[in-house]
Structure formats: structure tokens, C-alpha cells
Amino acid sequence: MTMVDPRPRLRVDLPVYDLTLDDVAELAAADEHGHRYELVEGNLLIMAPADVDHMRVITQLLVWFVANGYAQDLVLPTPGLRIKGRSSGRNPDLMVLRHSVAGNTVWIEPEDALLVVEVVSPSTRSEDRLRKPAEYAGAGVPHFWRVERDNGPATVHMFALGLDERGERTYIGHEAALLDRLVEGPPPTLA
């Protein structure tokens, strides 16, 4: 006997031309289910909405930054970050900006970002641990934090932008702290 899967399906009507970041913004705005959309070298990625623990980590960090003097308009959950012109854009879980940007901005330029944070999920491990940090470093974002939530309390891995042995941008200077301990004090200086 054939069973019909009762779960709702996502239907995405794609244009017949190469997608741009503007197209991705339109797709995300029309999505009724809260999916997140990214464009990587012209390839559309669709991510399921984050789970509650994921959102709690983001909220905890956002509140911590704002409570410690960062302006609300500089600490943004799940903003769009332009990586390469019109062909690549990511949605980090949290971003701290250097300065305020216009309220109607969808894709923030990398030179406006001071810190991007990714909270690792089971479905995005390789993206969050390997691909995204390389893209953010290549775009020149000064700080990258990765929050791991497997096997116990959430741990924040903090990296600063530097150069590898070939002179290419990469993240170096790894430090790690338990999230609950980190937020007991002030945020580190981001410069």
C-alpha cells in the first residue's frame, strides 16, 4: 500500500535565469515556513528553520552584547551578508556591525561586519565548520565565532582574521570558552 506523506512541502518557483541575491531575498520574503536561503556561487541553499536551543544561543549572545553597551542596531540575528558581488550571500546566525546600516538593507557588505557567529546544527556541520569560515575570512570579516552545542554545554570558539603561510586570509588565534562562562563577563574587544 502506498502512503502519502502528510507533511507540508515547500514549493519554490525559481526563475529560468541565474539567481541573484535580490532573487534570494524575494524567495525568503515569500516563504511562509521560516526557511533561510543562501546563495553560494549561484547555487541556492535552503535551510530549515532553527530549533529552539539554536535560537536560545543566538538570543543569549544578542542580549549579552546589547547589555554590555553594543547598540541594538549593531547586533543583528540572521542578517544577510554579501560574500561575492551578486552571486554569493550567507545568513550568519548573528552579526555585529561596525556601524549602523539603512533599515531596508537586506545584504550587508562584508566591510560593514565586525563579527559573524554561526551556531552549529547537525544538518549544517560542514558548512558552519569549514565552508562558511573560509568565505567570511575571504570576504575580510575581522572576527568569526563558532558555537558548538554537541556533547554538553555550548562552547564558543573565537577566531580573529589573519594570514596563512601563502598570505591568504584565514581565521587564526583560536580561543574557546563555555558560553555560560563567557556571558558572565564583558564581551572581548572587537576591533
From TrEMBL:
Pfam families: Uma2 (PF05685). InterPro entries: Nuclease_put_TT1808 (IPR012296), Restrct_endonuc-II-like (IPR011335), Uma2 (IPR008538). Residues 25-162 form the Putative restriction endonuclease domain. It comes from the Bacteria. SUPFAM superfamilies: Restriction endonuclease-like. This is Putative restriction endonuclease domain-containing protein. It comes from Phytohabitans houttuyneae.
